[in-house]
Amino acid sequence: MTINERYEAAREAYKAVGVNTDEALEALKRIPISMHCWQGDDVIGFDGAGGLSGGIQTTGNYPGRARNPQELMNDMGKALSLIPGKHRINLHASYAIFEEGEWADRDQLEPKHFAKWVEFAKERGIGIDFNPTLFSHPKAENATLSSEDEEIRSFWIRHVQACIRISEYFAGEQGTPCTMNIWIPDGFKDVPADRTSPRARLKDSLDQILSMDYDKTKVYVAVESKVFGIGMESCTVGSHEFYMNYASKNDILCLLDSGHYHPTEVVSDKISSMLLFFDKVALHVTRPVRWDSDHVVLFDDETKEIAKEIIRGGADRILLALDFFDASINRLSAWIVGMRNMQKALLNALLLPNETLARLQEEREFTEQMMLQEELKLYPVGDVWNYFCEINGVPAKEDWFEEVRSYEKEVLLNRK
Ligand SMILES: C[C@H](O)[C@H](O)[C@@H](O)C(=O)CO
Ligand SMILES: [Mn+2]
After folding, report:
1. How far apart are CA 260 and CA 262, in angstroms?
2. CATH of the domain at 323
3. What are 27-67's pLDDT values in tens digits?
4. Does residue 2 form part of some domain?
5. Domain span holding position 285
6. Which segments in the chain show pLDDT lower than 50?
7. CA 186 – CA 207 distance, rounded (Å)
8. What positions does the entry give for Mn(2+) binding (predicted)?
């Protein structure tokens, strides 16, 4: 059977449970996912300010890491060409691109240092999201926005303000708002004696940052919490409660990273609550394996559950990004598998008879609800997915992998 014939059969199967597959495919095509640049070079960046720090770690030494802007752009371009639909790219400030002999510290970054990224995105008609980089820098050795050292703290305040300007530039150039997400690694390895002072300083730093004039319709500032990090096992200053309260009082957004909570806590259960109080919610979908290990996103239960909440809550209210970095496998394959899995999970959610299921819950018909949810798991989502790839001009099934293998042989293995 051809992909088309299989799709026709799947369309009938879904129609029988009240799902329109054509509408699902149209909806899926309109959901952009922000692909993080940092998977391509193991979170190293180009500003040479310092080795990876902040309690995040990339493990593995698979050959072919991108070593400069051109290599990273080539790799991202190749990966994007094997992912159906139009997406976005997500940059960190440490990916600034300098002219020969030029260098600027993080607090001196300007839009011109990202002009080549704008060119890259414009060629593909895609939007850009941004992150100030408050790690991998000598001034981030102890603390950043919560630092007790006023010079250090004001350096990082200036950095984030510079990033807001750069985000405005991206939004203006690309004609689409830029999500600018703040994550800091500040915290304590062991039981702190004073939790309040660092948090009060972080609050003051954010107040100072947001006191600048910027276009809120162009830049969506978000704050990303974390329960712990390596070396910050006992307390992180930017905790969930801190940021949720701060964001809600100051009209900015929260970003939920699915690796940043206690291992038994799930982000899928948080989205609906957040959407009742915030206009939008930003997400970093990742896969924590026992800790915030940032493994590649799989088509697993939690990713599917997150996707259901995105579809049921309204995908236009979710700023969806991925965040993982695996150096033990082909880095392009990591991007492609993660992005395509997120899309498969969204498709899976779009192919559910969500209204019927919700009605069964309201009627407390939990027996039928469970039966239907379980039966739907074996419906032919794969046939619909393959058709989606085909109509969007990218290889279906595992057929994309050959291209990655050739790229590895011809390009990546020549990077010595
Ligand atoms: C590169 C990081 O993953 C990123 O800045 C941050 O979002 C994070 O998740 C840190 O754990
Ligand atoms: Mn994250």
Report:
1. 7
2. 3.20.20.150
3. 999 999 999 999 999 999 999 877 888 888 899 999 999 99
4. no
5. 31-352
6. none
7. 17
8. 260, 292, 294
Ligand 1 pocket check for 43: Cβ under 6 Å: yes
Domain count, the chain: 1
What's the DSSP call for residue 65? -
Q: Which residues pair with 179 in a beta bridge?
A: 220
What pTM was computed for the model? Answer: 0.97
Angle between helices 21-29 and 331-350 (to 10 degrees): 140
What is the CA angle 210-215-217, rounded to 5? 115
* C-alpha 405 – ligand 1 centre gap (Å): 29
Residue at token pair 């008879």 = 353
- In the numeric block, which tokens belong to residue 392? 């969007």
pLDDT at 50: 77
Pairing of strands 219-224, 318-322: unpaired
- Helical H segments across 175-239, by residue range: 196-210
Best residue among 133, 183, 223 to mutate for probing ligand 1, ranked by most atoms within 8 Å of CB: 183
Question: Which residues are in the CB-under-5-Å shell of ion ligand 2?
Answer: 257, 284, 323
Residues 6+ apart with CB under 8 A from 215: 168, 171
Is 26 within the bounds of a domain?
Answer: no
* ipTM > 0.90, yes or no: yes
User: Rounded CA gap, 132 and 180, in Å?
Assistant: 8
In whole angstroms, give the CA distance from residue 326 to residue 40: 9
Domain contains 244: yes
Summarize pLDDT for 115-173 with one digit per residue, the tens: 999 999 999 999 999 999 999 999 999 999 999 999 999 999 999 999 999 999 999 99
